[in-house]
Amino acid sequence: MSKLVVFSFLGGDLNQGFPVVTAQLWCHNQFVPVKLTGSLPPAPELSELYRRWQLLYAAVHQRLVSNHRIKVHSQDITNISVNDFDEVCEQLQANINAWLKFESFQNIERQLRTLLSRNDEIRVIIETNIVILHRLPWHLWHFFEDYPKAELALSNHEYESPQLLQKSPTGKVKILAILGNRVGIDIDKDASLLQGLTDAKTTFIVEPTRQTLDEYLWNHDWDILFFAGHSNSLADGEIGKICINQTENLTISQLKNGLKTAIRRGLKLAIFNSCDGIGLGRNLADLNIPQMIVMREGVPDLIAQEFLKNFLTAFADNKPFYLAVREARERLQGLENEFPCASWLPVICQNPTTVPTTWQELCGNVDTKVVDEVSTKGKIETPKLKLWTVLLSTFIVAISTVGLRYLGIFEKIELQSFDQMLRLRPKENPDPRLIIVEITEKDIQSRQETTKGMKSISDRTLAKLLNKLQKYQPRVVGLDIYRDFADPPNKSNLIQLSTELNKNNVVVVCKSRDSKYDPQGVKPPKDVSIGGQGFTDAIQDPDGIIRRQILMMSQEPSSTCTTPYSLSLQLVARYLSYENIQPKFNEDYVQFGSKVFKRLKHSRSGGYQQGVDLGGNQILINYRNTDYQRVSLDDVLSDKFDHKSLKDKVVIIGVTANTVSDTWSTLYSTAQQDYQEIPGIFIQAQMVSQVLSAVLDQRPILWVLPYWGDILWICGWSVVGSLIIWRVRSLSHKGYTIFVIVVTLYGVCAIALLKQGLWLPFIPSAFGIVASGVVVIFIKQNTGVSRHNLVG
Hints:
Elements: E1 2-10, E2 18-26, E3 34-40, H1 44-64, H2 82-99, H3 103-115, E4 121-127, H4 131-135, H5 142-146, E5 150-155, E6 173-179, H6 188-195, E7 200-206, H7 210-219, E8 224-228, E9 231-234, E10 239-243, E11 249-251, H8 256-264, E12 269-273, H9 278-285, E13 291-295, H10 301-316, H11 321-330, E14 346-350, H12 359-363, H13 368-377, H14 383-406, H15 411-422, E15 434-439, H16 441-447, E16 450-451, E17 454-455, H17 459-470, E18 476-480, H18 491-501, E19 506-510, E20 533-535, E21 539-540, E22 546-552, H19 567-577, E23 583-585, E24 589-592, E25 595-598, E26 617-620, E27 630-632, H20 633-637, E28 650-655, E29 663-664, E30 678-679, H21 680-697, E31 703-704, H22 707-727, H23 731-756, E32 758-759, H24 762-783
Parallel strand pairs: 1-4, 4-5, 5-14, 6-7, 6-8, 8-12, 12-13, 15-27, 15-28, 18-19, 18-28, 19-20, 31-32
Antiparallel strand pairs: 1-2, 2-3, 9-10, 10-11, 13-14, 16-17, 21-22, 22-26, 23-24, 24-25, 29-30
Helix pairs in contact: 1-2, 6-10, 7-8, 10-11, 14-22, 14-24, 17-18, 19-21, 22-23, 22-24, 23-24
């Protein structure tokens, strides 16, 4: 069984020690690792010992070996013997194992050993940014003696999963073999070993120019990149350099774009059969190449050739990558009489997010099912599998969101967000077609008029007011005062009022009888024809705010208010008749000219999800953010107003006295710092104004999507949002992306509402985006898309 152990060395160095060392163990089909934490003490002697070993290694090989892949220098060390070198090797091994026996680290090792079996195939990755830790011969740790199928790899701290393009299998492993500067070394053997691979197609480029090499990286698909020639590491191992010909030396950064393209097009493995490759490994790891093999120090020709031969034999025989490297490395020990420490040289550099490749996979001969099984064993999935996982989880989240909305969970906050978006509209000019004649508390008190215990105005005063208004030629007058009573016993006043109320341009009000909520209703004034009546029934939402108006509705047979038309509709129809615009009435809509006011049909329209009563022809009120022209009763009767202001206007008469209980909440009144309900006459004015403005000024009519449209909108944003979040790699960037998507959604919904009148479901869509984003983050973290794979 294959397992992965990743050691992370955080926040320290050999001089200071490592206060935090973590080990993560990934096992077969395990989505969450076993995580262990410990520490290591300072070990400055390790750094000094390795530097001494490095100098002695170079000096010994300069004396014993004539041909190396890189020219070595003794660093002024002379008169040394192989015995001296062997002693330093033993000291280095002893010190490494003594350091790793520190009690806190031993706790990690002991727990790991309880979870590992001797027969397990174990990949051990040392994750660090410290060069000296990459150089240390970790394979000398006694752990590797106890687990014969374990092998070491190196990794930087920061890495990402490589984004690979799909490519068609060819049945051959495509190898780009770069044979660089060969002065003083023999690389023909390397070429012959590659040519001997039966399942490979190797392209050789001999001492290429930089341009030639770049073109080969850009323009072809490669599975393996091979380099033989001179190389070295600069800046104490931070920078790797290869000699591609006798005059040109290139760093990895100088080939960065071509290498990134090759990796994206499927490059899985790079082998640098050349000297001092730690810098090459570190630099290539920054490009997120899946895996590499480099040489830790200078390498003699024979060692390079023997390692390549043994590795290719084992790997092409379909041995797992790590085991093939370990076998080829350990077989070099037989040559160490002539080439000391030869088995120390080869080392793997691994991107922890990728599953190590196999020879059959590179050939494209692996059955699709097998490839899928191998992929699902690891934390890394194929892009297709990840996509379907994201889509499935997002679909579940979206359907759950729709279900929560259906249950009314979002209704209150949806209505509040609807109000808030409408309040974004800037202050508007007053509607020039309307004027309100208000009966204030002062008007009532000054006349001391009380009728049947109700504060109002007398028949005589009302008749006088109507007569006065008619002199200034308003198009239509609406009386928003209930007059289901008369002032006894003055019959002449009643006759005079009746005359005024029955004029063609006057509309009086009544209130429908409702057997459930209002069994009485309010009847219209006596002797006024049904054509001059309009009901004023108001609809409060569960939070007490008026957001809808009824244009038409059928009355109960026993109702004293028999008109099917609202006061606002009656006033609008009379006003527009002067513009030669006649209404068309239907049970589903009211039409004036080209403007159609469609009723809210479904009991779950827009944000309304708790089955509100949508009886009659109801529409949403598109409130105007403005005050209205108004004049008081006293000013009209005493001629203290501009007479021209009434001509051709809609005049609405109503009571605004604060002692009269005809007040209501609107989206603007609730937003005031000092909350105060507004008189019903102003809401009637809003209702009239919104229809006139839509017909004559092209002001938007508020409307909603059909129920299935809302569902598609919510699901669409959830899916699109989750796909965007899925493509973002950084966890912090995912959170920022969720925020940006929600803000974008809000902007789209606000613009749609203010410009087109379309009320889109913002709150459930935002919830779906956030929930889908959280699920995607959870899936990525628990399937390790941005971390380690489980097994290969």
